[in-house]
Amino acid sequence: MKSFLGGLALLLVVVLSIVAWAVLPWPALLAVAVLFLLWMQLTRVGRQAGSATSVGVSTLSQRIGSSSVVVIGIAGVVAVLVSLLAMGVGYREALSKSGSADTAIVMRGSSASEVSSVLDHASVTVIQEAPGIARDASGKPIASPELVVAANLPLSDGSGDEGSVQVRGIGEQAWALRPEVKLIAGRKFRPGLRELVAGKGAQRQFAGLEPGRQIKLGSETWTVVGIFDAGNAMDSELWADADMIASAYRRGSSRTSVFVRLTDPGAFDTFKAALKADPRLQVDVDTTLSYFSKQSEGVTKVISAIGMVVGVIMGIGAVFGALNTMFAAVAGRAREIATLRAIGFRGTPVVVAVMLETMLLALLGGVLGGLVAWLLFNGFSASTLASGAVGKLSFQLHVTPQLLWTGLKWALAIGFIGGLFPAVRAARLPVTTALRES
């Protein structure tokens, strides 16, 4: 019964420690670390723990093979976890950068996204005259009625397969509405002609999108005349004249959405209230910042969940690796530990020494894994089907400091679990038994 209760108490310590480690912010964890260092410097037991730790660390070079198992195992967990989470961060940033607080999007009421929205010509006209919309130098409202459709194009990987790309028919004010969009090659398309410009992300994904090349959209042949860089989700799209896209896809005068630039962010409430109060309209109104952020939520959660599940599975393997290594280390140092106990070292310094040794290896693994993830995946280009869209979204993985901190916390948590049980065993081993077995 005593052994059972001791094991239960140890398991409770592990659970509470992991929960606290996951929940506490870094300033609180830093404060705990400072208090621990003060304890090691100012107390007799702490100084004993420091001496025992220095002895154990000094022998790591003699156990380089077994120690590297812990380091490499934890590095693998951290590298995979951080890279998967970086995918979610990159996806979210690509979409969130597509919007701003001083631009708004109007769609048909109850539409989940642009592709499920249809606005007739009369509604588009009313929307463009609503109060709160900024106007250009000539007095025209900075509003762009737009039409989103899908097209299939051959992929650039040479496989011969086709992928779906989102084609956006835009109005003449679309460029003023999105000043972040810059042409990096060629020129803008001319209204009334079957010309288009491609985002640099779309050009990377699909074949035949170089300026001067011709592609098939619908049943028509279109000429690529330019490449643009938006620095956001728009980079995955093709842009053309809205009237020409509507003609090619038989959409008449309808549009899927209307984008507007507001006089300032504070004008959004006035703009939205005016459209909601108009009996001729049944529309949903949102800032583009809010709209695109919502579009990223579902996929980001899925990617993060996958990363966590994979991290847990790999982490369990790393914990067992650490347990095996540290149990072997404790067994190999049984005489040394017994000698320390015999000359007056209590169980606590022994536990702390073994724990610190394991945490040091875990820290090295965490730093190595984070470095690998940053070197290999930061800025790495990827693409996936976008939520609420009809084509692939091209984005870059972002290994942020927050993700590196998350990976480091996972590494130290693995080291804590992997070192605790061998440490407790070392402290509980009777001195006479340890000396006899050695």
From TrEMBL:
Residues 309-430 form the ABC3 transporter permease C-terminal domain. It comes from the Bacteria. Residues 69-277 form the MacB-like periplasmic core domain. InterPro entries: ABC3_permease_C, MacB_PCD, Macrolide_Exporter_MacB. The chain crosses the membrane at residues 6-39, 69-91, 302-329, 350-377, 403-424. PANTHER family: ABC TRANSPORTER PERMEASE, MEMBRANE COMPONENT OF TRANSPORTER-RELATED. It is a multi-pass membrane protein. The keyword Transmembrane helix applies. It is found in: Cell membrane. Keywords: Cell membrane, Membrane, Transmembrane, Transmembrane helix. This is ABC transporter permease.
